Amino acid sequence: MPNPQEPAIRSDIPHSARIWNYWMGGKDNYEVDRTVGAACLQIDPDISTMAVQSRQFLIRAVRHLADEAGSRQFLDIGTGLPTMQNTHEVAQGAAPESKVVYVDNDPLVLAHARALLINTSDEGVTSYINSDFHHPEQIVADARNILNFTQPVTVMFMGVLGHADTHEDMLRVVRTVMEAVPSGSHLVLWDGSVDSQAYVTLCEEYAKTGGAPYRPRTQEQIRAAFDGFEFIAPGFVPITEWRPGSTEIGERPQIAAYGGVARKP
């Protein structure tokens, strides 16, 4: 029976998480999402490449943090719809005892979370918080029920902060969460930038569809989210340049998406 406190799934309004799922070849989307997604590809054909490469960046970053940095707690804010190798699968695959908490406020994401976001290990914990990243204090309060905030937490904002109304609000969200986690925690973050006019135009056109507006920012504005933290090499770079695998063949695609991984001192 539906929970009256949860928003209804709207199949008549496009949603960025479902469109992203479409661009990545997923099936968890509606006709309106496919229509808008296809129109966006006409404006910026590189957007599907950005979608796939962003997931590759997530996989490499989480695997590094679990394998080499000893991270055992992950807070993935704005997780979107499950696709390939989600955070908990990568983290628990490397460290079975890892705890992963996903945060999103889309009802379709919530429905899939209940069905699909199950542990990949007996020792680990995988959970979901129904919350909007615009309310970081609430996210922290809810996450404390699952994660141990006296131990390091990896906080992830993977291509979602363009939904913040202003750059100042974006920084507020990141800093509120990072202030709550202890020294030794990590911030993993990426976003699309204004370097690509096609991407800027895509975001402008998407806002006209009724979907939640997405605001591309400059490289400097994205990098500012890391102020006060210590970058892990190679630092703030195009996401395709963050520790690419040695088995990758051919030239890496050039896309206007930048990010990094940094440690809280």
TrEMBL record:
Cited Pfam families: Methyltransf_19
Single GO term (MF): methyltransferase activity
A single GO BP: methylation
Transmembrane segments: none
Alphabetized UniProt keyword annotations: Methyltransferase, Transferase
Keyword Coiled coil attributed: no
The protein's name in its UniProt record: S-adenosyl methyltransferase
